[in-house]
Specification:
The chain is an alpha+beta fold. It has a domain at 113-152 and 179-220. It is 52% helix and 8% strand. It has a 4-stranded mixed beta sheet with strand order 2-1-3-4. α1 packs antiparallel against α5 (218-230) and α2 crosses α3 (141-151). The relative contact order is 0.10.
Length: 233
């Protein structure tokens, strides 16, 4: 008979009251496994480990993709916001930049008589009955002198000095010269008179008619360009 206390541990020495006889222990442990079973278990464990690893890394890849997609959306949103702010600032500053640049460029351009004539004719063409309409064209002194020189290329300035009376008369006449306007400066426009306006600059042109004043000053044209760029009518 084996005492109950002796069955609590396999590592403990079990004393027998008498020498045991009639039994033997040939194997202790799990039952033996064949090679085929061992190979099958090995393959099954490999496939299971492979599937678990594949599932784990697929989950990690999906997680990384989601994180990168979220970061990409945030980055694109910030870029879109910055672009919108930059375009807004550019829209605000662009009209002033364009007008300022145009003023600088136009201020350095020297206009000749042909250009002045083109400016005047272009403005006169806006009147429907330009052949019959009586128009008053106002130019600066420099532009008006260019048109006069082009209309009278043979006229030379008076040198004076020979006849004092004639020189004095010419000087007196010069004081009132242009008060009634100059005509015949443009061929084909007999009803157009030209006047000098000291407030105008080179390239400016204003035309008065029975309908009112047509403003062709460069500053006015630039303001119209600015209004079109800003969308303010």
């Amino acid at each position: 008979m084996i005492l109950e206390v002796a069955t609590l541990s396999y590592n403990k020495s079990i004393p027998f009251p008498e020498t045991p006889a009639g039994f033997k222990v040939s194997f202790f442990g799990n039952p033996p496994v064949s090679n085929e079973q061992a190979d099958g278990q090995k393959t099954s464990a490999y496939e299971q480990g492979k599937a678990e690893a594949t599932a784990f890394y697929q989950a990690e890849i999906r997680k990384l993709r989601e994180e990168y997609a979220q970061r990409q959306e945030q980055l694109l949103a910030r870029l879109d916001q910055k672009t919108t702010e930059l375009v807004g600032k550019l829209d605000q500053r662009l009209p002033d930049m364009v007008v300022s640049l145009a003023e600088r460029v136009l201020g350095k351009i020297e206009l000749d008589a042909v250009v002045i004539e083109g400016i005047v004719k272009n403005m006169i063409s806006e009147f429907a009955d330009q052949d019959e309409e009586k128009l008053e064209v106002y130019l600066c002194s420099q532009d008006l002198s260019l048109l006069k020189a082009m209309a009278n290329p043979q006229k030379e300035p008076d040198e004076g000095g020979e006849n004092t009376d004639e020189g004095f008369a010419s000087a007196i006449a010069g004081i009132f010269d242009g008060l009634e306007g100059d005509d015949a400066l443009l061929a084909g426009f007999p009803n157009v008179k030209f006047f000098e306006d000291a407030s105008l600059h080179s390239g400016d042109c204003q035309i008065k008619s029975r309908f009112g004043l047509l403003d062709g000053r460069i500053a006015t044209k630039l303001r119209k360009v600015e209004e079109e760029l800003t969308g303010n009518d």
